[in-house]
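Please predict the structure of the following assembly.
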Amino acid sequence: EPEVTQTPSHQVTQMGQEVILRCVPISNHLYFYWYRQILGQKVEFLVSFYNNEISEKSEIFDDQFSVERPDGSNFTLKIRSTKLEDSAMYFCASSVQGNYNSPLHFGNGTRLTVT
Amino acid sequence: AQSVTQPDIHITVSEGASLELRCNYSYGATPYLFWYVQSPGQGLQLLLKYFSGDTLVQGIKGFEAEFKRSQSSFNLRKPSVHWSDAAEYFCAVGVSNYQLIWGAGTKLIIKP
């Protein structure tokens, strides 16, 4: 069964550095998402993306964050200047359609540690 | 405001015993409700969902959940758990297209 893949599985970076988290969604999916889960806390929605545009974003997704689909397969999340509180597990997801009739498929996540 | 509460942080169940994981939600309209499972080192996998219709929904791996509007609940059940069911389970409510509001999760521990 096709899977959403995320790289790297772990990323350690210093505060203030830029990081790019990479995701390869399932190939026929059109809608892409990023969620994050700070250790011990709830999973939180960050952003949804369709047709090369952000569809929705949460309050967490401020100017430090950006998303991009640089080619036909990758979907990236960039954090411009990381803060300690950005340490979390970041999940990428994709779906065929952008509604609840179309299941979300999640990747295994990238654990980001900011020191 | 929309919210999801999973009152049990951990639940321990003997293998072969029945399971019920609780979920309560707060949402003004008819909710879209989901249960996801996260095994160690894995991503989030959809177990089942409720949109409308029959309030008892069947999912994968032998799980089912019942939507009770009067109680604002969507509890997950399984008649007989297996050691492979040990994982963390998340209830979520959809507030717009895939902007899910998540519960804090319940970690299921299986006793041999």
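Chain A has a mean pLDDT of 93. The CA atoms of residues 76 and 100 of chain A lie 23 Å apart.
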